[in-house]
Design brief:
The complex is a heterodimer of chains A (87) and B (300).
Chain A (H helix, E strand, L loop, with lengths): L5 H14 L23 H12 L16 H9 L8
Helix pairs in contact in A: 1-2
Chain B lengths: L1 H7 L1 H16 L4 H4 L24 H5 L2 H33 L9 H26 L19 H25 L5 H35 L2 H20 L4 H6 L5 H10 L1 H10 L1 H10 L15
Classes of the chains: A mainly alpha (87), B mainly alpha (300).
């Protein structure tokens, strides 16, 4: 199991919580779209937050939306196997 | 169904004939008409200052002229990139409908429309790649709510119209701005000329489609359509505030920068200016009840 960039990944969770102040936590497998934690209006910021945290550019043309559905799928698609940015 | 509505509208048929003639009269070869200098000067405005996202905010006073010029350069490439992606979407929708039974009557106009939009997409992409080195990517959005079943074509042509009117606000102003480079003015001028025909058609078609939808729609369905359009308008407007643009222009914290701009009182004023004609049309037809998009902003 590759080391996970805990602190950098936490930026994604922190962004979701800041957008949804009524929530104290987000489940790792919770569906972010179905539970309305992320919607299309906040999508621009959401994508940019992942890009910054993972230090990568997300290709929108080939992006699989299922990769963005849960914290676990985001971690797997954009963070696992990368050199930790911080932490 | 749609075909019957179009055929019953003498006004729409007359307008279609006039627009078809005009498309033939105004035809030009975009691959010859533009002069593309090797480069455009970096130390100048690439957009009319009033059309940039920082204009009229305290942030604009905090930044030196070079940074504002750099921002206008990246914002202009983002604006033309939005055009490229928006045109792709509308080409898909119109191509799906041309020469189907429902759209038999406007199909001749659709040929001009598809041809002209294809050429617009080419010159916008050319500008981005020559002078920006890339086309900014754009997440699709603002249209994920489920509209009433029988409103699909109405909403598709509303989205096309809203997108064209937003773009035209910028084109018409930049075409006349003598402080901009001639190539920038030319791109905006030529697009504005063609879009005025597309907008004229879009308004007529949307009016006919909405009149028919309203005959059987419930209040709830009309509200669903209105919310859908407001969400799309807000998403389209906020796409002008791109964190990738701010990053490329050397802004230290692009997301914080974006939030400050979206929460600044100037944002609402800018939004009302950009959609002034669009709001007038949509409220007059009854598609929108008011001009307030604040419930649909990402900055909430």
């Amino acid at each position: 199991m590759p080391e996970t960039p805990t602190t950098a990944f936490d930026e994604v969770t922190a962004w979701i919580l800041a957008k949804n102040p009524e929530r104290e936590s987000v489940g790792a497998d919770e569906d972010l779209v179905e539970n309305r934690l992320v919607d299309s209006l906040s999508f621009v910021e959401f994508i940019f937050t992942i890009e910054q945290a993972a230090d990568t550019e997300i290709p929108m043309d080939t992006l699989d939306l299922d990769d963005l559905r849960t914290l676990n799928s985001i971690r797997k698609a954009f963070f696992d196997g990368r050199t930790p940015v911080t932490g | 169904m749609v075909s019957r509505l179009i055929d019953e509208s003498e006004r729409l048929k007359t307008i279609l004939d006039r627009l078809n003639e005009k498309s033939i009269e105004d035809y030009y070869n975009p691959y010859r008409v533009f002069e593309w200098p090797d480069e455009l000067p970096a130390e100048m405005w690439w957009m009319t200052p009033e059309l940039t996202t920082t204009y009229g905010t305290p942030i604009a006073d905090e930044l030196p002229a070079e940074r504002l010029h750099a921002l206008s350069r990246h914002e202009s490439v983002n604006f033309y990139s939005l055009n490229v992606h928006g045109i792709r979407e509308l080409l898909i929708e119109v191509t799906k409908r041309i020469h189907t039974a429902d759209f038999r009557t406007p199909s001749e106009f659709f040929h001009h429309f598809i041809g002209e939009e294809n050429e617009h997409m080419w010159f916008f992409a050319e500008f981005c790649l020559r002078y920006g080195g890339k086309i900014y990517t754009q997440p699709r959005g603002g249209a994920e709510t489920i509209p009433p079943n029988n409103a699909e074509s109405l909403l598709v042509f509303c989205r096309i119209l809203i997108f064209e009117e937003l773009v035209d606000h910028f084109n018409s102003k930049m075409a006349l701005d003598r402080n901009l480079h001639e190539t920038i003015r030319q791109v905006n001028r030529i697009h504005h000329q063609d879009e005025s025909r597309h907008i004229a058609f879009g308004r007529e078609l949307v009016s006919v489609l909405f009149e028919d939808f309203r005959k059987t729609a419930t209040e709830e369905e009309i509200t669903q359509v209105s919310d859908y359009l407001k969400r799309y308008m807000s998403f389209s407007f906020e796409s002008l505030y791109s964190p990738q643009v701010y990053r490329d222009a050397g802004i230290e914290n692009p997301l914080e920068f974006r939030r400050r701009l979206l929460n600044d009182p100037r944002r609402k004023e800018f939004e009302q200016q950009v959609f002034r004609k669009t709001f007038s049309f949509l409220t007059k037809t009854g598609l929108l009840g008011d001009r307030d998009l604040s419930a649909f902003s990402a900055s909430n």
